[in-house]
Amino acid sequence: MTTPRWLSTEEQQLWRMILSATRKMERTLDETLVENHNLTTSEFAVLVTLSEATGQQMRLRDMCQELDWDRSRTSHQVTRMDKKGLVAKVKCAGDARGVNVEITPEGERRLKDAVPAHVETVRQLVFDPMEERHMEGLRSYLTAVLNSNTCIEINNQRAAEL
């Protein structure tokens, strides 16, 4: 087993700031959507994904990939939203096992009602405090994090240790 590469004091402080800022953003966005539009951030994400898809529908497996959620989470979320009338599950033509998910008129209406306040919250919370000169650095950093294979490397290392 390798020795952990402990964080320096400065790194630990920055890491905790990242966690706090992420929680604040998630909490604020969720509260705004729930209080003003009775939508969770997960419901909002599904509705946005469907609204941007060709024909406002998508195969469930493609939705998993688009949202970066596992199949179980996506399936349960879609089932809950189907019961609320926000989306509809439709069998795929020519594939008995496949499921398409489509936005309903109610889902589309709720999304259109929620988008302006959501965008304004994002603007106030994320972009108004950010200086223009920081945007490219942040974009570059987040791209590097998202393109990192660290999770794969850690999982492979754990498997090798077993």
From TrEMBL:
It holds the Pfam family Staph_reg_Sar_Rot. It comes from the Bacteria. InterPro entries: HTH_MarR-typ, MarR/SlyA-like, Transc_reg_Sar_Rot_HTH, WH-like_DNA-bd_sf, WH_DNA-bd_sf. Keywords: DNA-binding, Transcription, Transcription regulation. The keyword Transcription regulation applies. Residues 11-147 form the HTH marR-type domain. GO terms for molecular function: DNA-binding transcription factor activity. PANTHER family: MARR FAMILY REGULATORY PROTEIN, TRANSCRIPTIONAL REGULATOR, MARR FAMILY. This is MarR family transcriptional regulator. It comes from [Brevibacterium] flavum.
